[in-house]
Amino acid sequence: MIGRLKGTLVGKQPPWILVDVAGVGYELEVPMSTFYDLPELGQTLTLCTHYAVKEDSVALYGFLKESERALFRTVQKVSGIGARIALAILSSVSADEFTRFVQGNDIAALTRIPGIGKKTAERMIVELRDRMDALPSAAVGASAPASAMDAASEASIALQALGYKPAEVARLIRLASAPDDSAEDIIRKALKAALR
Questions:
Q1: How far apart are CA 139 and CA 67, in angstroms?
Q2: Do the domain assignments include residue 68?
Q3: Beta-sheet strands, E only, within 54-108
Q4: C-alpha to C-alpha distance for 170 and 166, rounded to whole angstroms
Q5: For residue 142, what pLDDT is reported?
């Protein structure tokens, strides 16, 4: 299993990044919470990773914070929750906010996360409430910008990868983008707008 990677960030296109480790390029899918805090291209970074093997695929997920990886793994223990919804959770709210939602029985807040309906939210609360205290608390990362393609297009791709429908993505980007915003800024504002 691959539990940690340290290497040079050589590519990023949400939700994917490419990390060069001693000449081997590892492609990882990351939540937007990690993507926002990535260093500039060419910089060194260390990621906690989750290696997933399924019948028809192999995937590697990366996280800047151990608390995010722990939450990613924990929520997938709920029946019907997979990596896609786990990433949507981490891309929409912080690990601490999610813990508060679950422990506070806040179904309304949970259903604002893409891919989570009322029944799923109720199931998550029942199955996760007692496990949330065992998760490590979040550490603060450093912020970073950067993108090569048009910021709105990059944001659109990332939002659709998180499970938003194209029409909803177009609406959110219209609401959230300003002329000089980076893709990360647009995504952050769009996700906040979606949660209102």
A1: 7
A2: no
A3: 58-63
A4: 6
A5: 32
Domain that holds residue 116: 78-132
Is position 138 within any domain? no
Torsions phi, psi for 85 (to 5 deg)? -70, -35
CA-to-CA dists, residue 62 to 5, 31, 34, 108, 122, angstroms: 9, 8, 8, 28, 28
- The answer to whether 23 touches 81, Cβ cutoff 8 Å, is no
Three-point CA angle 34, 7, 69, nearest 5°: 35
The residue-averaged pLDDT of 139-167 equals 61
pLDDT digits (tens, 9 = 90+) for 33-78: 899 899 999 999 999 999 998 888 899 999 998 889 989 999 999 9
What pLDDT does 149 receive?
47
Residue 12, CA distances (Å) to 68, 81, 82, 182 in order = 19, 26, 23, 13
Kindly report the CATH number assigned to the domain that includes residue 184. 1.10.8.10
Q: Are 128 and 169 part of one and the same domain?
A: no
Residue recorded with tokens 């177009």: 170
- CB distance 63 to 34 below 8 Å: yes
The one-letter code for the residue type at 175 is L
* Contact call for residues 155 and 173 (beta carbons, < 8 A): yes
Total domain count, the chain? 3
